[in-house]
Write a structure and sequence with these properties.
heterodimer; A: five-stranded parallel beta sheet; 15 strands; elongated; B: alpha+beta; two-stranded antiparallel sheet
């Protein structure tokens, strides 16, 4: 398992290095002391896991994740931060409290090794499986297959994900390129819909289509896209 | 007649409030209630007699006469008086019951507010004394030093122990010499330097005469901690923390100057530390002390304290 250590404090990096060194099967491929270095290292080294400090100069660990296209598996390390614990109210991720206990670290790594291969290790061209979103004080790892609808809001995108409506700081066009084309369909200039969530299709005026989403709103498909949709779904 | 009753009860209410009857012990209250009832009933009874005299030419109204036909005139007058006593007695009892209920409710409310303010003060004190982020990060750095540099690790343990002891002993009204406070600040800065390494650079300019001046304990410490937390730690290259103390006229002027991020990447703190420090200065020195945080320069923060020398 290839690990990257991100922390602004040299002593903290050395300590984690020492702790990880004692664990069999972990290879530390790099270190970074701020989020710019970390971003570069993640894109270049493609680690299986990133040990990520939260408070760092020039941007927090959350800022780093929000800027990454492909989010690797992350274990947060923090000295004391209720914020970090609260941030993951939706889907808790592992975090280690500093000073890190060797037993806790070993347990975390066992869990990582037991889980299926990390999303960071997937080939570069493969579609996105999950997104990290930071919206105000809250953070989420969002599994994209559970998102029913993406709606453009200016240069941002509002996700419809169960009861949550987080705002993603990217454009709809940029997001579309990274999505799995077999699952997600561009219904109009402002919306992308998850085909798995479509419950019913109705014909509208002038060749438009109306898609009824499960537990969601109705989505209008523009005329041009409706032709494409018919072809894909074999709707007459 | 009912108008007269209204006027009398209003008058009585004003007397109850003015004389703070509700604050009286039970026995004293009962004596007053009985006397007031008798007095007010008497006044009302006399008024009623005067009124019927004017209207009916007799001091007993004809309706009442019909009602008490069998009684003598004296008996009728006595009965009228008893009715007055009952009516005013009942009014007074109901009024006092309501007023007491309201008074008890307000007292409970005040008690709750007071308790909350007290707890808030205690919490602020605790928070100003121990910063868990600093504590756990120091312990983490220490764990690393134990392997890398045991001699420095031993020093760091001593420094951490001194900082903890000092901050635990400090209380709201403690005054210490600047000399003593500076010793604590030096221990604290040594620990922060262990973590921040070359990112934290320190300049000191302390006039010898200033060292004896007494100021609230943990005051300079709070300013230095803020300077690192909101200024130097969030800056990638770090920066210079400057502490200066000099006597100007009859005042000690204490300054902590630090660079700070201009991009607003760091959220403004809640200001609990500074607010608490300002309150303590005011409690101890009233108008003779001041604390000012100057953020006019977007890339610099200047905290200044003036206390009587």
């Amino acid at each position: 398992m290839r690990a990257l250590v991100v922390d602004d404090e040299p002593l903290a990096r050395r300590e984690l290095r020492r702790l990880l060194g004692a664990i069999h099967g972990v290879d530390i491929v790099g270190e970074a002391s701020n989020i710019d270095e970390a971003r570069e290292s993640i894109e270049r080294l493609k680690p299986d896991v990133v040990f990520l400090d939260i408070q760092m100069p020039g941007g927090s660990g959350f800022d780093l994740l929000a800027r990454l296209d492909r989010v690797p598996r992350v274990v947060f390390t923090t000295a004391y931060d209720q914020y970090a614990v609260k941030a993951f109210e939706v889907n808790a991720l592992d975090y280690l409290l500093k000073p890190i206990e060797p037993e806790r670290l070993a347990a975390t790594l066992r869990k990582l090794q037991a889980s299926p291969s990390s999303p960071g290790a997937v080939a570069a061209g493969a579609p996105l499986e999950q997104l990290f979103i930071r919206d105000g004080p809250r953070c989420w790892f969002v599994p994209l297959r559970d998102v029913s609808l993406f709606t453009a809001e200016g240069n941002y995108v509002r996700l419809l994900w169960g009861k949550e409506r987080p705002l993603l700081g990217r454009s709809l066009a940029a997001l579309e390129q990274k999505l799995d084309a077999r699952r997600f369909f561009r219904a109009s200039r402002s919306q992308i819909v998850n085909l798995d969530f479509i419950q019913g299709v109705e014909l509208g005026e002038g060749g438009r289509l109306h898609l009824q989403l499960r537990e969601g709103p109705e989505v209008e498909v523009s005329r041009r896209q409706a032709r494409l949709f018919r072809g894909m779904m074999a709707v007459p | 007649m009912s108008l007269a009753g209204l006027a009398l009860t209003h008058l009585l209410r004003a007397v109850i409030r003015r004389a703070r009857w509700l604050a009286l012990p039970a026995a004293a209250l009962w004596v007053r209630v009985i006397l007031a009832t008798l007095l007010i009933a008497l006044v009302s009874w006399l008024l009623a007699r005067l009124l019927s005299q004017a209207v009916y030419g007799s001091d007993v109204a004809p309706i009442t006469v019909a009602f008490y036909e069998k009684l003598t005139r004296a008996g009728q007058l006595r009965n009228q008086f008893i009715i007055q006593v009952i009516v005013y007695g009942a009014w007074l009892a109901i009024y006092l019951a309501f007023a007491m209920q309201r008074r008890r409710y307000q007292a409970e409310l005040r008690q709750a507010q007071l308790g909350e303010a007290l707890r808030g003060a205690e919490l602020r004190l605790l928070k100003s004394q121990l910063n868990p982020h600093f504590l756990f990060n120091s312990l983490n750095g220490l764990r690393s030093l134990i392997a890398d540099d045991p001699a420095r690790a031993r020093d760091a343990v001593t420094q951490l122990a001194r900082v903890l002891r000092y901050s635990l002993a400090a209380s709201e009204d403690d005054l210490v010499s600047l000399e003593r406070e500076l010793e604590l600040v030096e221990d604290y800065l040594a620990l922060e330097s262990m973590r921040l390494a070359e990112r934290l650079r320190i300049e000191r300019d302390i006039e010898p005469a200033a060292r004896a001046v007494r100021l609230p304990s943990m005051l300079l410490q709070t300013l230095v901690e803020n300077a690192i937390k909101h200024g130097i730690a969030p800056l990638k290259p770090g920066g210079v923390l400057r502490i200066s103390a000099k006597i100007v006229g009859y005042e000690l002027v204490l300054q902590v100057v630090n660079p700070r991020p201009t991009d607003g990447s760091v959220a403004e703190g809640s200001g609990v530390g500074l607010k608490n420090a300002t309150q303590r200065l005011h409690l101890l020195f009233a108008e003779r002390a001041r604390l000012r945080l100057d953020l006019a320069d977007p890339s610099r923060a200047v905290a200044e304290v003036r206390v009587p020398a």
